[in-house]
Write a structure and sequence with these properties.
With 538 residues, this protein is of the alpha+beta class. It has ten helices and 13 strands. It is 57% helix and 17% strand. GO terms for molecular function: phosphorelay sensor kinase activity.
Length: 538
């Protein structure tokens, strides 16, 4: 029987049963331990309401006798191995039992109240856990003041002592059940499974697609058992195989046609989805450019309006001077006209320079965005130009952007796609990182390049990204605000531009409630790509 199927089946069953029993037992023990520890921790938490006011009163009144009495009484509780009380500066006031010092070491409180290492280690069971509570005293004016903190310590030995009897019953129960089932299965398998399984194995072992036997299987020890049902199903299978061999060729042909049709439909839908993604990406780029145009146009209204006012004022001054000339020009009138003309000309110069700077920044950014041409540029200057074009829109928000750019970072790359990346990341921080907030700060830092790469760090102090979303933010169509019109393509486009066009890498670190930091590393000399025709500048 050592080589029989029944014996091997018995070994497998009881091997699996033993493993499951061990796992279940360990799980039960762990659950019992965890439940008991939770109960102990709950009892410790309840001490805050019971002993907290007394400790606060004794500490406020500097009554060491009452403090010592309270701590000694708490030490007698079966779940407590030690208590430590410190003031608001961390200085030890009083302690009893076994506690942890500032370095986390086990310390024993001596009779004089000082802490000293225990005489011998307490092993794994002596590992302590604790709960710390603030000591607050209510003043006469109704306010409260934190004057220190007190810590209650317990250890694993206390928890195990409370559940050791249950542990013993679980172990004894598992051992008894395992031994009883082993004995019963051993008798039953040898009598009811051994010979029938041997006969089944011998019959099935001779079956193959070319030799299905001349007679159906009949067990010598017949009966209405599962093995008889298995023999009956084997006979049915034999008959079905014989009947199905003639249909095999037709079935294979139908499967081939179905597979070809399925592959074609998958290819068509994949292509359609790719086109849809490209259209959405193009729409986002055009929407961003349109928003930039509207912002620049609005921003130009102020300097141009100032220029119109200055020109109108100058016209009035000239007419007044002409009238004075006819009536007899005085030296004081001429001096006043010259002073006013100087002021007006300075105002005109400042506003025209401001408008020219806005137009120049927008012109360069717009050409870069639309042509994606490769050129040599200073990284800090390109970032400044892009931030200038975003300034009109940013001024309408309560958020600020701070720049810390290393000078003269010479690059030979694609400023248009780079500007699109910066614009998308700033917009993403405003729309998602600062959602629902009335203030926020974005910092863009370019340190001095190391080796042949430039680093761009975009950080915000917004709401952050939860860890479950962090690995999916670059996936296409992934967004947490789909119902508010977000397409989920912004960061996917950013990732594609950085890793393909700019030939770099992008990494995101985030902590909920703290903020998000995006780190981009791109080569100073970008890899060569097929470039679009250069659009001539006006």
């Amino acid at each position: 029987m050592t080589r029989s199927i029944a014996t091997r089946l018995l070994r497998i069953i009881f091997g699996c049963y033993f493993i499951v029993t061990v796992l279940v037992t360990v799980f039960q023990l762990a659950a019992e331990y965890k439940h008991t520890r939770t109960r102990v921790e709950s009892e410790i938490e309840a001490m805050q309401n019971t002993f907290g006011p007394g400790i606060a009163d004794a500490m406020w009144r500097f009554n060491d006798d009452i403090m010592r009495g309270i701590l000694s009484g708490m030490k007698e509780l079966p779940i407590v191995v030690g208590i430590k009380v410190v003031d608001d500066q961390g200085k030890l006031i009083r302690a009893v039992g076994t506690v942890l010092d500032d370095q986390g070491r086990h310390m024993q409180v001596q009779a004089d109240g000082k802490l000293a290492p225990p005489l011998s280690g307490d092993g794994l069971l002596g590992e302590v856990f604790s709960r710390e509570f603030p000591i607050t005293y209510q003043l006469e004016n109704g306010s409260t003041q934190v004057i220190g903190k007190w810590t209650v310590y317990s250890n694993r030995r206390i928890v195990i002592r409370q559940v050791e009897y249950g542990f013993f019953l679980i172990l004894v129960n598992s051992v008894i059940k395992t031994m009883a089932l082993w004995f019963i299965f051993l008798l039953v398998v040898r009598r009811m499974l051994g010979q029938p399984l041997q006969q089944l194995a011998a019959y099935v072992g001779h079956l193959n697609i070319g030799n299905l036997g001349n007679e159906p299987l009949r067990l010598r020890q017949g009966g209405n058992t599962e093995l008889d049902l298995l023999a009956h199903k084997i006979n049915e299978m034999r008959e079905n195989i014989l009947a199905g061999l003639s249909e095999k060729a037709v079935l294979y042909e139908e499967l081939a046609v179905l597979n070809e049709s399925l592959e074609r439909r998958v290819a068509e839908r994949t292509e359609a989805m790719r086109h849809a993604q490209d259209e959405l990406a193009r729409s986002e780029r055009l929407a961003a450019l349109g928003s930039m145009v509207a912002g620049i146009a609005h921003e130009l209204n102020t300097p141009i309006g100032n220029c119109l006012v200055a020109a109108s004022t100058m016209h009035d001054k000239v007419r007044a001077l002409d009238a004075s000339l006819e009536a007899g020009l005085r030296r004081s009138d001429l001096r006043k006209f010259i002073d006013d003309a100087n002021g007006i000309s300075e105002l005109l110069s400042r506003n025209i320079e401001r408008a020219a700077g806005l137009v120049s920044s927008f012109k360069q950014v717009a050409v870069d965005r639309t042509s994606s041409q490769r050129r040599k540029f200073d990284l800090g200057a390109v970032i400044q130009e892009n931030m200038d074009t975003l300034a009109p829109a940013l001024r309408k928000t309560p958020y600020e952007v701070l720049l810390d750019l290393a000078p003269l970072v010479a690059m030979d790359s694609y400023p248009g796609p780079l500007g699109q990346v910066l614009s998308a990341l700033v917009d993403n921080a405003i729309q998602h990182g600062f959602h629902g907030r009335s203030h926020g700060r974005i910092s863009i830092t370019v340190p001095v390049p190391s080796n042949d790469h430039a680093n761009i760090i975009i950080a915000d102090d917004g709401v952050g990204i939860v860890s479950s979303h962090l690995n999916r933010i670059f996936d296409p169509f992934f967004t947490t605000r789909m119902s508010e019109g977000s397409s989920g393509l912004g960061l996917n486009i950013v990732h594609n531009i950085v890793t393909t066009i700019l030939g770099g890498k992008i990494h995101v670190d985030s902590m909920p409630g703290v903020g998000t930091t995006v780190r981009i590393a791109i080569p100073l000399d970008a890899p060569m790509h097929h470039e679009e025709p250069i659009i001539p500048r006006a």
